[in-house]
Design brief:
alpha/beta
Length: about 500
């Protein structure tokens, strides 16, 4: 079993296709791993044992019959519980949707199933994707496999922790302000936010519609690229979907693995350093930049002054869109209903239901957003934030006119202890300081592990950003860096994950 759960997705797919191992065996090995350790990690909200084994058997039958199967057929995946899955609970980490069974699949879910990818279950998350630590889940916090007393990032901490704990070789996350990349950084895994509109949002329960983006999570760059190509592409069901070819991310990852970045110009964003950044994170980042230079890349310092205003702009735009999107949870159509005893009005039932169903962080952001959109304040707050968003996009455009990709630390610190920032929202929000600009501009960005901090031995992430629809640029750079990093460390970062002693 150990060999199966520690194999990459690409390795597993090859073994399954050649019938060296069956998809059922691979699925069962990961289900056994979940049973062994998830009581301690709490990465999963729902494990679909029956559905996973049924899907795996179909892949085995198709291969035996000589049918053509996809490049990831039979490989297990963990799905963030913000994407609808037919017949399987979707809670979005909230009590307000407890018990809801969607009657349809999200486009991402459907494409995974059509490709023969085996869905193991749904992963834990900050409620409605609002958070940076997965402590805001109504179903308890997820814990970081590197140190069970620390956070796994958020909002997609369950998807990242499942990878780091070897419960799944692949997972899906969603990224509104860093919710794929920040968990990737603090768990030593790869997390990718594709170009906005590059992956369908149909069936993704909305937090902030102009920012939300589903993307691949994995333990290697190639695995992320393979998953990216499965889920990406135009979808007429999503009005924000881009009708353009999927960038050649797999070819770029394979090219990058050759370790040559000659002719690539890499911009170092000067705004992402200094006060508030952990010294070990900055040293890891400097070492990563030095490795990129050794691979032949030209390193250029780039200033993006509007990035300094990204955090406040984001925390006006995202809550404003959330206050509108979450109005649909009104106790009338789906989810829980509180106080409906025949004596109360619909308005009273709605109020009682939202009071009971939404957690503190969701309520906080709804109130911020409603205030920012209110009469007399719209221009001063929401309107001004949108102007800042335009300036950030212009900074990206100016930077990409001179460099191929931009790099920075993914997050200012390593994983912090559970409970350390729950009483200080501003300290929590600063975890997304480096990741938010890419969401506001809509361009592509990813986090790749850059080793361990020399201060606490915890994972650090290198963020690589690319222009819209040029996702393959960052895959090439990330793959080249990954090979150099592993050679320098003598092993992959993820191989150092503790064995979760006592996690039974």
């Amino acid at each position: 079993m150990t060999d199966l759960i520690r194999s990459t997705a690409a390795e597993l797919a090859a073994k399954i296709a050649s019938r060296e191992v069956s998809a059922v065996e691979v699925a069962q090995a990961h289900l056994d791993r979940i049973a062994e350790v998830d009581g301690a990690v709490n990465a999963f909200l729902h494990v679909d044992t029956e559905g996973a084994l049924k899907a795996a058997r179909k892949v085995d039958d198709d291969i035996a019959a000589g049918a053509h199967v996809g490049p990831l057929a039979g490989v297990p995946i963990a799905l963030k519980d913000v994407l609808t899955t037919e017949g399987v609970p979707t809670t979005v980490g909230s009590k307000i949707l407890e018990g809801w069974i969607p009657p349809y699949d999200a486009t991402v879910t459907r494409r995974l199933k059509e490709a023969g990818v085996v869905v193991l279950g749904k992963t834990n998350m900050d409620e409605f994707a609002m958070g940076s630590s997965t402590e805001n889940s109504a179903y308890g916090p997820t814990r970081n496999p590197w140190d069970l007393d620390r956070i796994p990032g958020g909002s997609g901490g369950g998807s990242a922790a499942a990878l780091a704990a070897f419960e799944a070789p692949l997972s899906i996350g969603t990224d509104t302000g860093g919710s794929i990349r920040q968990p990737g950084a603090v768990t030593g895994t790869v997390g990718v936010k594709p170009t906005y509109g590059g992956v369908s949002r149909y069936g993704l329960v909305a937090f902030s519609s102009s920012l939300d983006q589903a993307g691949p999570c994995a333990r290697t760059v190639l695995d992320a690229a393979l998953l990216h190509e499965v889920i990406a592409g135009y979808d007429p069901m999503d009005s924000t979907s881009i009708n353009a070819p999927v960038p050649p991310v797999v070819a770029a990852a394979r090219e990058g693995a050759n370790g040559d970045l000659s002719g690539v110009r890499v911009g170092v964003v000067t705004q992402f350093s200094g006060e508030g950044y952990q010294a070990g994170v900055l040293r890891s980042f400097e070492a990563a930049v030095a490795q990129l230079k050794q691979l032949g890349a030209e390193i250029v310092e780039v200033s993006c002054p509007s990035f300094d205003y990204a955090l406040p702009a984001y925390y006006l735009i995202a809550p404003s869109e959330a206050s509108s999107n979450l109005a649909r949870f009104d106790a009338m159509r789906y989810g829980i209903r509180v106080g409906d005893d025949g004596t109360r009005s619909a308005e009273e039932v709605m109020s009682l239901t939202r009071e009971a169903g939404f957690g503190p962080e969701v309520k906080r952001r709804i109130m911020i957003g409603t205030y920012a959109l209110s009469s007399g304040y719209y221009d001063a707050y929401y309107g001004s934030a949108q102007k800042v968003r335009t300036l950030i996009s212009r900074d990206f455009d100016a930077a990409f006119a001179t460099v191929d990709v931009l790099v920075s630390p993914t997050t200012p610190t390593t994983a912090f202890p559970i409970g350390e920032r729950t009483g200080d929202p501003m300290a929590m929000y600063k975890a997304d300081l480096c990741t938010i600009p890419a969401n506001l501009a809509g361009n592509a960005a990813m986090s790749v592990p850059s080793g361990l901090s020399d201060e606490d031995g915890l994972p650090v992430g290198l963020q690589i950003m690319a222009p819209a629809l040029q996702d393959h640029r960052m895959y090439r750079v990330a793959a080249a860096y990954e090979v150099a990093r592993d050679a320098a460390l003598g092993a992959t970062v993820i191989s150092g994950v503790p064995q979760l002693a006592g996690a039974r």
